[in-house]
Amino acid sequence: MRRVIPKLKSWTNLLLVGGILLFQLEITMAADKNELGEAIHIMVIGAHPDDCEIKASGVAAKWVEAGHKVKFVSVTNGDIGHYESAGGPLANRRAAEVKEAARILGIETEVLDHHDGELMPTLEIRKELIRLIRDWKADIVITHRPNDYHPDHRYTSILVQDGAYMVAVPFICPDTPYLEENPVYLYMWDHFQKPNPFQADIVVSIDDVIEKKLEALSVIESQFAEWLPWIGKYLKEVPKDSEGAKQFVKDRFKPYVMRAAETYRDQLSARYGEDVAATIQYAEAFEICEYGRQPNEEEVRRLFPFFPEKE
Description:
Blueprint: H1 11-35, E1 41-46, H2 51-65, E2 69-74, H3 87-105, E3 108-111, H4 123-136, E4 140-143, H5 151-164, E5 184-188, E6 202-205, H6 210-218, H7 221-231, H8 242-263, H9 265-272, H10 274-277, E7 283-292, H11 297-303
Parallel strand pairs: 1-2, 1-4, 2-3, 4-5
Antiparallel strand pairs: 5-7, 6-7
């Protein structure tokens, strides 16, 4: 169809129209790419520099190995999560740790500069996350559930939820191109029961990437070899040498990751078959949020291209 372009009265108008046409072309190309089943863009948004790695680094590694794009975002900088260090030095240390974890996983990572323990669901931070999700052109956004023990986790969830509809609304944050379609929003697994327990809608075997996940966790030493052992009263059990501490972290997390596979064996059976599911040792689980796009089984399998073909 022949496009009619209005008469331009100035270079300003020329640049404006050119920008609009370029934006329309980018949207069309993105839509065509998605339809062709090419790179899926996944963003995992956690409250602290370690939350995404604990809950979703296995599936992140699988996505990357399949040729897709993953970015972890920490909404706070983690600047009080230690018993000896705080402020800028700790924030810098934690950012460096998750950067190394991201290198191991083959993903991108970003730590936002908001104080640990003081996060509030403000309009400014909501807009910040809307822009990040749009810039990443996210097909999937994963975050905490809103009934978590930590206020930063709860408010991260609220911030992401509050932006779930807005990422496709053109005139909020108009400086960042809006998404033509809402992403699929997912919650990370937790064990909290009130007011609602976690619902395991998607459970993924990570047996093939478990060593990569454990390696990524082991380099976040400030948390898993220092802070959590200190607050959990088992710091004396952690070896003093770095390599020993890393192995301690790996051994400590193995039963935790096994727990998801043991708990959701039926859900694994539904997608992998009973025989295969019975052999799965490690898994990560996700709940489909009622906000955002609601995927059917076909789309779940497209977005999580790890399940065997249905017979």
